[in-house]
Amino acid sequence: MTTAADHATSRRAVGVLIASNLLGGVGVASGVAVGGLLAERLGGTSVAGLGQAASVLGAAIAAVPLARLAARAGRRRSLALGYALATAGALTILTAAVVNQLIVLLAGLGLFGVAQAVNLQSRYAAGENATAATRGRTMAIVIWATTIGSVAGPNLTDPGNAAGIAAGLPSLAGPYLFSLVTFALAGTVIALFYPRLPTAQPTSLTSEPEPSREPEPSREPVGTLASLRWAGRHAVARYAVVLTACAHSVMVMVMVMTPVHLAHHGMSLTVVGVVISLHILGMFGLSPVFGWCADRFGGVRTGAGGMAGLVVALVLGLVAAQETAGGVLTAVALTVLGVGWSACVIGASALLAATEGHVRLPLQGATDAGMNGAGALAAALAGPILAWGGFTAVNVAGAVLLVPAVVVLVAALRAGRVKAPAVA
């Protein structure tokens, strides 16, 4: 951005992203608090995790097509289409609750999950409207905007349930009425107010090439698999991709089973909503701080700090699982889990946003697809793991999922880089 008009357009774009993420956050959070419970009601405890798995899988499937559409037609069309699909998903979930069909519910939750893919890609759109010195903070502010909506969303569970029952809907379906409305509003905001912008090429965060970097043979656009192969050859990019997937899978596995765990211990929907709100506050509330850390100390170190937070959360979860009335400690563990996730995702996102060249958008889409695919697998496994070994086993499994990120962290630190490599 070089002119006053460019700066004004950039500020407008970021403002629109903030508004849409706020609305989208309400929609996602109001539904996620009861998705597992609704799936359990229709299919039993062993399939409770499939609800979140379907939602996360939907986000994973949508990530690459949305990134391709953004490269071809711009972020405005990509983000608006994503919210339209999520709106259709909320409507399908309401239909599933009425007809009492688990398959229809899972299909609706898959479309519902596209909203999460849109929220994630909004951070990259924000990074395209920032300088290298402020990229981490700009991305983090857009992520932070989700906090208001996401914290409010779970606390709409009881009012939404009451509104749904008053409208003749089955129990647990009502919160998706809020999702339906807020997704539609978020898509409208993007479609009407997001400026038409060319795909930006951000300035690299590093002044010299990575030692292990190989010359790119051409400037032709690359595909999803090619972008991942490129990342596999570069320690820092590989770290960003793997960390994103591992951190998200750990967070999803523990988070999706927490409402079921609390319900099994007699906690009310109100308590569940408060715990999920605290978790989401942890996920997004400190985003600007971690954005500053990424700008100041680099994405590798910021992500490493997030991994430490995830370990602390898992230890707290193990302790809480041993208590008969561990609601407070469970809430603390889930809050710390959100904080660790935030640092991991923002650190990795700053590295990915700084990647130059035709590999950038495909790699971002591939990373988000891997992130949500890993989360979907973790959510699908979480239900059987909870049924087999309780909340203790869920936290142990989360620790195992974090191991690959530790391995690639060592390689990234050994490479002597704390910033993303540039593509010539």
Overall number of strands: 0
Total number of domains = 1
Distance between the termini: 21 Å
Average residue-wise pLDDT: 83
- Shape summary: globular
In short:
The protein has 16 helices and no strands. With 424 residues, it is mainly alpha-helical. It has one domain: MFS general substrate transporter like domains (Growth Hormone, Chain: A), CATH 1.20.1250.20.
Can you walk through the features of this model?
The chain crosses the membrane at residues 12-39, 45-67, 79-99, 105-126, 138-156, 176-194, 236-257, 269-292, 304-322, 328-354, 366-387, 393-413. Residues 202-222 are annotated as: Disordered. Pfam families: MFS_1. It comes from Ruania alkalisoli. This is MFS transporter. With 424 residues, the protein is mainly alpha-helical. It has a single domain (4-414), classed as Growth Hormone, Chain: A. Helices cover 79% and strands 0% of the residues. The protein has 16 helices and no strands. It has helices at residues 4-43, 48-73, 75-99, 102-112, 114-127, 135-152, 157-166, 175-193, 224-232, 235-264, 269-284, 287-297, 299-321, 327-353, 360-401, 403-414. Helix 3 (75-99) runs antiparallel to helix 8 (175-193), helix 7 crosses helix 8 and helix 12 (287-297) packs across helix 14. It starts with a helix and ends in a 10-residue tail after the last helix. Residues 200-218 and 417-424 have low confidence and may be disordered.
Q: Which tags fit this structure?
A:
Growth Hormone, Chain: A; 424 residues; MFS_trans_sf; mainly alpha; transmembrane transporter activity; transmembrane; globular; MFS transporter; 16 helices; disordered C terminus
